[in-house]
Amino acid sequence: MRSTVILPKRIYAILLLMGSLLSFSFAPAPSYRIARLKYNGGGDWYSSRTALTNLIKFSNENLNTNIFPEEATVEPGSAELFNYPYVFATGHGNIVFSDQEAQNLRKYLTGGGFIHFCDNYGMDKYLRLAMKKVFPDLNFVELPFSHPVYNQKYRFQNGLPKIHEHDGKRAQGFGIIYEGRLVCFYDYESDLGNGWEDVGTYPTDSPELHEKALKMGANLLQYVFTN
Known about the structure:
CATH topology: Rossmann fold
Helix content: 25-40%
CATH superfamily: Domain of unknown function DUF4159
Distance between the termini: 29 Å
Strand order of the largest sheet: 2-1-3-4-7-6-5
Mean pLDDT: 86
Largest sheet: 7 strands, mixed
Strand content: 5-15%
């Protein structure tokens, strides 16, 4: 896995100035790196393999973000978790946090971190139980359509887009709000992660749904980076 080297601002500025004086072009170092959560419990945390790569590319091209092009992988109990402003988690089944992992996640989220859970189908009952361990006194609440996550560069006046059929229920965007700040977003009956994957990965895919999913994902990133 490649790692991102962040130069001290003063040294980086000197290098940029030298490059300008010598007529060389220095590409700026990526400002952020985002990660996928490798959780325990047996769920397929690794699914939607092309999702984050495509979301990063879309965001860099359309929001002028400067995110490292390759996703990282991080475990919920790791100190490395605090290196990533946005963490994505998906899967079809069980998800379990140990006491130490739950404590670490809580510290990460209350300290400014953000996690996005995507129900790839079958995660719901396990996720709700797992997050109760992280925030015993908080519940997922459905976010109103007026919430900022739906009103960044792209407007979603009717809330979360419906990407995959699943059980035929309406798509819902839930959140955990800690001291007035959204720290966790959960897309249910939508499957944004599958929507971010390469067009043609699933029989029901279409370029239109792919674009909607990417725009909603870009909104989430923009919200994280500006709030």
